[in-house]
Amino acid sequence: MEKLVVGPLRNRTTVQEFLLEGFPAVQHLGHIFFLVHFLAYLTSVMGNMTIITIIWADHRLQTPMYFFLSSFSFVECCLITTVIPKLLTIFLSGRQTISFAACFTQDFIILFLGATVFFLLSVLSMDRYMAICKPLHYATFMTPKMCFLLVSGCFALGFLFMLVPVVMLSQLSFCGPNVIPHFFCDFGPLTNLSCSETRSIEILFFNLALFVLCSSLVITIIAYSNIVVTIMRLPSARERQRAFSTCSSHLMVLSLMYGSCVFIYVKPKQASRLDSNREAALVNTVVTPLLNPVIYTLRNKQVHQALRDVLSRVQLQK
């Protein structure tokens, strides 16, 4: 469908609300999908909140790595809470309306938190690099103040990078149609609904998304290249295995996150493969947050011990 471009009149918006289409092909299975995603949502939130609680309750886990992981879990909880409740309503009732302002607010929050996640992943890579490759300087560099500044920087960069394109898109004209072929307000489908010229905004967003993904990926590649070299020089096989185990979880999450986001966002033409985009978006908003607690920390012996200690204290208080 060709886009009707409004010429000299800008910001002539007649659309007051949008319709989130969701997954019309499987709407007849809506109640089953509702139950599956509701359980996945509860499990994700409980898993990530458990990680945050354990890290802050046990002094042995109050280290830079676990501080970054707790920040990562917090962002994941916020991200899925922005998306999943509306998705659950779609599964139960079909298409759902969302106001113009609420739609762009949701779009910004998702992009802001998504960019923050990638910056946090690069910080986690740097943390592992310092711990393994520069152990003598680790405690000096990774002070509580530095950790706070790094996490604050991730949030600030995510906010600034995603604010401009979303605000610019919200100022364009939307004169119909208003059906978003997605289960949340995503940037690509919204640009397709605008009846203004969106090429410059699409290019800006593409470049910003590419920078966020590539910059964090480059930092990760450099960090892990040095980590691998350092690990291979360790004299003991047991030391090498232990060092690799601290990085394997991070690499698994990176594969899921980068793969799905590159597929969704780093394409100049957003109008294509919408069904595949929805499926890839489900990976980021449902599957990855569900797996992160297991992949990252719940398989960690330190976290296991801390969880047992917390449960023991609760039982003793009874």
UniProtKB/TrEMBL annotation:
PANTHER family noted in UniProt: OLFACTORY RECEPTOR, OLFACTORY RECEPTOR OLFR212-RELATED
UniProt key word Ion transport: no
Record membrane topology: Multi-pass membrane protein
The protein's name in its UniProt record: Olfactory receptor 6C4
Gene Ontology MF annotations: G protein-coupled receptor activity; olfactory receptor activity
Subcellular location per the Swiss-Prot or TrEMBL entry: Cell membrane
Gene Ontology terms: cellular component: plasma membrane
Residue span, G-protein coupled receptors family 1 profile domain: 47-296
Superkingdom to which the source organism belongs: Eukaryota
Main location: membrane
Bilayer-crossing regions: 32-57, 66-88, 108-126, 147-168, 203-231, 243-266
Source organism: Sciurus carolinensis (Eastern gray squirrel)
Keyword terms: Cell membrane, G-protein coupled receptor, Glycoprotein, Membrane, Olfaction, Receptor, Sensory transduction, Transducer, Transmembrane, Transmembrane helix
